[in-house]
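Researcher: Good morning. I'm working through a list of sequences from a screen, and I'd like to move beyond sequence-only analysis. For each chain I'm collecting a predicted structure so we can compare shapes side by side. This is the next one on the list. No need for commentary yet; just the structure.
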Amino acid sequence: MGPIWEVVGGLQRGGLLVRIGKDTSSEPLADRLQTGAFVRQLEKDGDRLCYELLFGQGPQTGWISCASQGKPLLAARSDLWEVVGGGEKGGLLVRRGRDLTSEALEERLATGSWVKELEPPKDGRLHFARLAGSGPEEGYVSLQVGGKELLKKAASHQAAIPAAPSSAPSAPSSRKLRIFALAGSITCKELLKFQCGQLAALLGKDAVEWTYAEGTVFHPWELSEQLSDFERTVAGKRQQLISWYEDIYHCKQDEMFFRKTYLLCLRLGPVVGS
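Model: Good morning. C-alpha cells for this chain:
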C-alpha cells in the first residue's frame, strides 16, 4: 500500500489539474482533483505523482504535480488508518473511552472507512476521528483482536524514498593546495620564505606545494611598524612588495588565528592535481 497524500493546493483554481500521462504535455482530464481530497501514491517520478483517489472529489486516477512555483500542492499524511477488519460483524466496535469497559457506542465503524489518529495508539487502542466511510465521528477502537489486524496504518513516506546506493570510500587523492608567492626581488622572495615557514610547518610538506617567484610588482611597502627586526632590516632596503591577500596565518602561544600584519604578495591557488 503506497503512501497517502492530502491535496492542499489548487483551491483558487478549483483543484489540481490531472493528466492522463506523466508528461506535463499529456492530455488533461476534464475534472480536477479537488482540494481536501486524499489520494494513495501509485508511482512517483520527480515532481510528478500517479495516484488513486481514496476519498474526496476528482478523477479516480491520473498524474498530478506535487508542487507549483515552489509551493507544495500535496501534504504527506502518515496519521491515517484504514479499517480492514470487522466485515463479518458489520464493522468495528467503538467505545467512548480507552478502557475496554467504557461505554460502547451503538453504531459500528464500517469496514473500508478511513480515520485519523487523534493521539498515538496506546495499549493497542486507537483514539480516532472519522474522515471517510460510515460510523461514529470519534471514539476508541482496538487495533487487533486475537492476533487479527483490524486497522492498517498508511505507509510511511520515508519508506517510499529509495535508499541511496552505498558506495565504497574514495581512494586517497594526490591533490594538494598550491600556493604561489610573487616577490619583486630576490630579497623579497627570501622574506616571503621566512614569513611562510611557520605556515608551511603547520600544514606539512605533503599538504601544500609552495612556489616562490620574482616578478613585476607595484604595491608599496607599508605597515613597517608591525615588522620584526629582521623584516625591518629587509624593508629598510626599500624593496617593494605587493599583495593579493593582506592576511597571513600566525601562531601565538599555541593558539591559531588570523590577523592582519602587512601587505604580503601571497596568492592562494585552487586545489588542483599535483
